[in-house]
Amino acid sequence: MEIWINPACSKCRSALSVLDAEDADYTVRRYLDDVPTEDEIRAVLDRLGLEPWDITRTQEQDAKELGLSDRGAWPRDASARDRWITALAGHPKLIQRPIITADDGTAVVARSEEAVRDALSR
After folding, report:
1. Residue 88 and residue 97 in contact, taking contact as beta carbons nearer than 8 Å
2. I want to staple 1 with a disulfide (CB 3.0 to 4.6 A). Which of 20, 26, 70, 115 is the partner?
3. How far apart, in Å, do the first and last CA atoms of the chain sit?
């Protein structure tokens, strides 16, 4: 199991606390330092069963500067999927966190204790 974190994020620290309390075997990836490639983002999206806009932090300053809330410029459909992935790889702060890749090949956005426990049960 791997968890993508930003150490400054309280949700990430909470997720790590749950994993530690459960004595889970996991690897930490500080995704702002070890930025995921476009292919890694695609793989995580497949595991999550989500689209890139579903894991984009649209309130971040980078998102505002890119105009991600402008659905005309950034449609949320298959034609723009690769463009969104490129934006996430180029601006990793935009990736929702924490993301846990579970041992069964799935993944969860682990923003709650329940989501972390769900990943542990997989």
Report:
1. no
2. 26
3. 10
